[in-house]
Amino acid sequence: MIISKLKEALICFKAGRVTLPYPFAPHDPEDGFHGRVVVDAEKCVGCGGCAEVCPPRCIEVSDPDPDRRVLDFLLERCTYCARCAEVCPEEAVTVTKEYETATNDLNDMHMHIEVFMSTCRRCGRCYEPPTPLDRLMVTGFRPPTGKSEEA
Amino acid sequence: MAIKDYLTKLFPKSLWVYHVNTGACNGCDIEVINVLTPYYDAERFGIKLVGSPRHADVLLVCGPVSRQVASAVRRVYEATPSPKLVFAIGSCACGGGIWHDSYNILGGAESVLPVDYYVPGCPPRPEAILYGVAVALGILPKKTAPVVARQKFLDVVEANSGEAISPEG
To answer: For residue A117, what is the domain's CATH number?
Structure first.
């Protein structure tokens, strides 16, 4: 019995130290980890797609005046699913690897983004900028003929 | 430093934690157990899991507070001897998570108890929980701050308010 205990002790010595030195040394998460989201306000177009897909509905969109759209990210209830980053057409929402978000004040988890919404000066509504897809809507539109059709 | 002095005065020895599940999906519970394993080893800081709130200094609250469990959570809090700390672990305990507007959920842990530290994450990494402990003990500084961002063009609009302008110039 003593021998088996000694063997066990030997195995423990072989393993060496396994404890992470984490709080005293940084420990980066592996690739693909979803941490806190970051929004680049300059890229944001204010479409609200992120608020539409957010499972905990932690993105609140409001329009305080016609020129301005405000996105409030209440990240304390964010589930870090990164759907907002997936659907963002301008890639303004990005996921970082930051996980050290422990705090004693919930306001630290709030993000306030103000976006300019250009409005039509005549009717006061938002307008869409022209896109290449618009010509598809013209009556009699034909796609440009490619070489495959000629052959 | 102020928090550290305050805590060393209040908690001169080890922090004993009592783990309260208030309706969590078990994800945060597993991460809390992970923190106590030798790999992460919260016992370096004297943290020990105890089986009764009467022995505890810290309550680790996981999960949104459901209507059914709210009275039990209040009783656990009253059973804990003062001075006591409450940690909210996970997004559900911090703000209700995806259940924040459910009919049977009162909200996060702060809707029932005074919460001292929040560790967001769904579930938080074991490192994130350790970081929360380190912040509470004053070993590491807090890294988060509220973010307020504003498009630069809004300042231009406000400077020329009333005039017809477009982003192109």
So the answer is: 3.30.70.3270
